[in-house]
Amino acid sequence: MDSAILSLLGAFVLSILGLFAFIWSLRKGLLVENPAGAGLIFARGEIGQIDDPALGGDAHAALQDAASTSLGAPRGADPDEVRARLESDRSSAFPVFMFIAFACLWLLVGSAAGLTASVKLHAPDWLVDDAWLTFGRLRAVHTNAVFYGWVSNACIAVILWLLPRLLRTRLAGAGWAMLGGSLLNAGVAAGIGAIASGWSDGMEFLEIPWQIDVFIFGGIALVILPALYTLARRKVEHLYVSVWYFIASLLWVAVLFLVANLPGVHVGVQQATTNWWFGHNVLGLWFTPVSVGAIYYFLPKVLGRPVVSYNLSLLGFWTLAFFYPQVGGHHLIGGPVPGWLTTLSIVQSVMMVIPVVAFSINQGGTLWGRMNLAIYSPTLRFMMFGGLMYFASSVEGSLEALRSVNQVAHFTHFTVAHAHLGAYSFVTMVMFGAIYFMLPRVLAWEWPYPKLITLHFWLAVIGGLLYVIPLSIGGWLQGLAMLDASRPFIDSVTVTMPYLEWRSIAGAMLTIGHLVFVGHFFAMALRFGPNRAGAALFWTPSGEAMAHGK
Amino acid sequence: MENELKLTAGAVASLGIATAALVVLPYLQVHDLEPAAGLKPYTEQQLRGRQVYIANGCVYCHSQQPRDRNFGPDFERGWGRASVPADYFHDRPHLLGTMRTGPDLLNIGVRQPSLDWHLGHLYQPRAYVQGSNMPAYRYLFVHKDAAETGDVVVAVPPGHGVPGKVIVATRDATDLVRYLQSLDRSYPVLPASGRP
Known about the structure:
Helix content of chain A: over 70%
Order of helices and strands of chain B: HHHHEEEH
Structural class of chain B: mainly alpha
Number of helices of chain A: 19
Oligomer: heterodimer
Strand content of chain B: 5-15%
Shape of chain B: elongated
Number of strands of chain B: 3
Number of strands of chain A: 0
Distance between the termini of chain A: 68 Å
Strand content of chain A: under 5%
Structural class of chain A: mainly alpha
Largest sheet of chain B: 3 strands, antiparallel
Order of helices and strands of chain A: HHHHHHHHHHHHHHHHHHH
Radius of gyration of chain B: 22 Å
Largest interface: A-B, 99 and 78 residues
């Protein structure tokens, strides 16, 4: 049996299946645009009204003026629908605050571990007398803290906050979600402690021992159930595009985490394929859909303008759902795994261009003629930059899966740079933007020092690019040196040194940005700054006036 | 899209296809695999050393999967022939790795069989390899005024120890080196079927 033909045939059949499913789900109104669906995020009469809770009164008015010059003044939102939305926000405020607080904590832990690990790669004799401070443990502490701690908590916060809004109902089972959050974060803390003390399952992104994974899985399940229950009790007919992404991603992450961590089942190279089926799908089926779903809500909401093509977003969703889950094998190109498997993953990695282009056209079209508003709105800045980096990292990822490119980039820091382009410049930036939008609504309090948001943005943008670009160059040179049999191996180490140092500088900038962000978060939670709003976590009439009076 | 059942069914189906391709099919292909003829099972000490390798995250810089000769100069560098699934029969968890900040280690036991070299190199890599950025693993060693009976004393090149002290390897360090010495896939195998 010719493996190449078999694999190409398999990939072809799978892609066709995916496309059929897409068409089947779309058969109603396939060729008709659906402005009603796209407008679901607005209350009646709200289109044209900009919305960025991260802005103070004057800045908000300036943004509205700038938007109104091109779109005309809004008609004014239906007060009943706005009140219903406020009700939704109230139902989710406490759990959302809890998940954001945990996310902030893990962001700091992850940054400290990551920065220390980065420095150790060019200063290998620094901190060598304690086992828990060695590079191999700090690296895993970093990845687990940012994956399961920072991004996952932030993703859950976004989901729990947006689902009631989009389904126009109250969050069901908020208490269960918070219990889930406690279990999840206790699990993450225990897992990180285990890794630091040398107790590890030994596989990248699956280091946390399965005994602790039980708690994490329980936590995820307790978050999913309220989300599904909220979905079942929805008061809207139509499910907005963000809802598809959120619900699907919750189901995906549960299955991924469960299957990958089953103890005693996976063997030998099959364990390696499972490892990377999981490792890439955590990005592709958990971080990416939640971030894309968040952009699909926040970007049009800030602009006061529905996404231009709702059907493109459907195409994007189903192609992502059918192509992305199979790309993980590209981490094992050239390795001791069946050839058909890596070929399948390469084919699907390239197919990923379709959902990414669909997304980018859609967001670009929505933003068209409105880019100037980013000057006013911090949420918009984070979302725009994140969306742009989604395009960049996905296209780079598709290219990186090609055998000829992979031959050089595999086994080098190029991959690390790529991971940060996706997980930081795309996902983390979107999460920052979402938190800047959500928290004023959650806490009924404005961000006390708006200038800090701008400072954080530029630290994150410049630090992110300064991280990714030099390290990509260094990784590429490292790969070329490794492939050249006439050069000794150590050449591939020495050539990376200046780039590794740049990486530490960039990492320090990002860490400073995180200190600004988390410090600002604490200042807000502790009610620093000018008192421009009345209520705390719990809703009062003055809170209502604050939230929608502007 | 109005139907949440369609949404969840589609989402689960898409992941199901991927799970079949990347998890189940490889499982069916390798679960009844025989170990390679020349492959020895790990001893208890080597397995303890393997745990030290895992605990300290060696996998983040060292792969254990030499590539085919038409895909890179791995063989020319002395890392060994391209590995096959049967080489990993005893490996739980797998340690294939995805980074080569340092060289591939699947055949390090063939390339560098010396206990003394490995211990000294773990204590201070830069005493042996100029320009290496491998961490020094000093916490795997203790400094003593004088060696006691049964101690594994580590000799490092001049200028790298602590003056007036002897360096003694902990059990973790010797276990780890025993594991590294056991890494040997130099026996011949038939190329795996289905490889490109």
